[in-house]
Design goal:
Helices cover 18% and strands 50% of the residues. By secondary structure, it is α+β, with helices and mostly antiparallel strands. The strands form 2 sheets. The protein has a 35-stranded mixed beta sheet that branches. A hairpin with a 2-residue loop joins strand 11 and strand 12 (271-287). The longest helix has 28 residues, at 2-29. The chain is rod-shaped and about 155 Å long.
Amino acid sequence: MNKFVKIGAIIVAVLLVLVVAVAILAKVLITPERVRSTVLPIAEDALGREVQLGDIEVSIFSGISLKDLAVKEKDGGENFVSADEVVLRYKFWPLFLLQVMVDEVRLEKPRIRVVRMEDGSFSFDDLAGEKTGAEKAESAQSQPADSGDGGGAPINLLVSTVRLSGGELLFIDRMINAEAPYRYQIDELDVTASDLSLDRAFPFEVSCRLNGAQLAVDGQADIGRQRGQASVELKDFDASGFSPYFRDQLPGTLGGLKIDLDLYAEGGMEKIASKGSVTLRELDLVLNDLKDAPLRDATIRLDYDMAADLAADRVDLASSRLDFNGIVAEASGTIASVTTQPNLDLNLLVPGLDLRQALKAVPAELVKDVKPLDPAGVVKVQAVLAGTLEEPIKLLRTAKITLEDVQATAGGQRPVIAGEIDIEGDRLNSRDLFMKIGDNRADIALQAENLFGTPIRVKNSVTSERFLIDPLLAGPAAAAAPADGTAGRAEQTSEGRAPAEEIGPFDIPVRAEGTVQIAEALYKGLSINNFDMAYRLVDNVFTIDKMAGEMAGGTFNSTARVDLRQKGLAYQTNIDVERFGADSFMQAFLPVARGTVFGDLSLDLAMQGKGTLVETIKRNISGKGEFALFDGRITGSGLVEGLSQFLSLDELKEIQVNKATGNIVIEQGRVKLNSSFTGDRVKASPQGSIGLDGGLDLSLNALLSPALAQKLDSKGQITSFLSNEEGWVQLPLKVAGTFTSPRFALDTSGVKEQVGQKAREEIEKKVFEKLLPGDGAKGEQDSGRKQLEDAVKGLFGR
């Protein structure tokens, strides 16, 4: 037991001797004078600046402490770099060899002041200059050969570790504004670099607050190979304060922007690889071209994985994902000739664009006209971009666009479109593309070419087995009919509102042709079968070459042409209807006249006009045509009811028509009518004009059957003067008012003529009876009668 105690005591005694020896060596070898003579010349020679140093303290455990270090500006005024304390730690064992080897430098609360001058130079530019040979020789001669105190070993600065804590960097920029220079500050600067070496990599860490934002950098540096790697993390960096440095490069005015970084980079002078994320938050930007639609509180995040070959001027993008307020796009590929003429070869993917979410993501003013449509659905895009940026529109080489239940509300309806669109080069083709509106479905085959040229050439065909038209028109009709009954007043304006203007002219860089084929279309109970339309758009002239089908027991065929190049448009059409069921036709296309006209209707009409406003249409529309009605009847209309009431004949509430024919001429806002119809009880020859507003100016020239004439004038006191040889009574009538409220009146000039004619006939008859008795010989009587007729007619001027 005593043996172990003795051994322990000896070890302790040896350690105490070593400590005392080291303390003595430290005091002998490391003196303030030797430190000052070693540090100051090296620092002043390297920097070319005055270096000031305060008290120097030496401790066996804490090392060498340099107080109040200051490196002056070039002019000797302000401090360029200053530190409250610089600690030099030395190695322990070299002291026994009478050597002082400093391997760690620690700076406490250093302060660095950097100034950019009005001419763009920096306050440290002189530090980066290369010394001349004479200056290098002078520096070498000025350095002490030994410790400077007459003996002892020099202090060797073989630094392997540098630590900086609590630092501060102030940047003052006088170049942008000399009178009120910009000031930026880095606080809480901590730097650690260990195992420093010129021939191998060493780790380092940097952390600070940059204008209040936390920045952390952790990596390795290889000075000899000029390579390195680092992880960078930045939080809540307010970039708006730095806007003077990139203001001119912005496409607008920046109101606010915060940046977050979380990335990793490695490489050297020739190649760099990096991956991570860059987030722009609280972005407020008013674009020069969209001042009414500013970005407010937007968020943009970029996740990427890329490699840059600086020597080859090339960037390889392994992956990237851009998220703008929830709108996501992904890209991968390469970009060559980055710094000269960027040449792209990229794969672009939009994995699923939700249209409702996209509408919320962009500025409200930008989509204010689209929001009422409430678009919804998902759009997916896969595309290949290749080429230079000289013609961006031609970058698109191939694309596949998938539409999943894309829909919008328009005209009271909500059509849904689904399918795929493929683009290859300047060609487009659809695949399984269809549109649904309620229970309706139409398949669409779409082709286009010359997408990047003028004009774009389009071919389209639409087919459907069964199509219900009523639901399509229910929404628009309800929306278009004001509750106050002011429908049709297209040009009515209110105070402060400009009058409506004609649409057009249009310059559409498209040549199109297409067909629409519907096996059966239903409209207000009317079945339209085998509907077939062919159209084309050439040089901004839209032409319907054929629109034909079967309806109401008959057929129709029409053509049309619309010139889009003129303001208000110019148009013409030809309509040919053969043996339509009149009641079905009225029920479908003129509901107010439903149940008033029956029979088989044929129509051949040509019209032309110009304008889209009501008054313009009235002034410019013209046309002519012929019509016929067979085996029909007219009942319940305002004209028939008005005639029945005017003559007090209930039998006229329904008029049978064996045949009605006529022709019409449309000009100056009126329809000129020349027609006739025959029936069992009424015959008439309506002539005159009808205004496009429904106003009437007609001469009816009606003939009533003997039976109706008897009811009209049972004693024959009046009708006897108006009847013809067959007993039909002619009633010359004038019709004014409107279709719904007609006004009837006798045509007095026609009545006078008719009565005069009848009186002449009666006088002739009496003369014949008196002068030619019925008992004469027939031959003589006929000869005398003819001579007498000629004489009497000559007497009455006939």
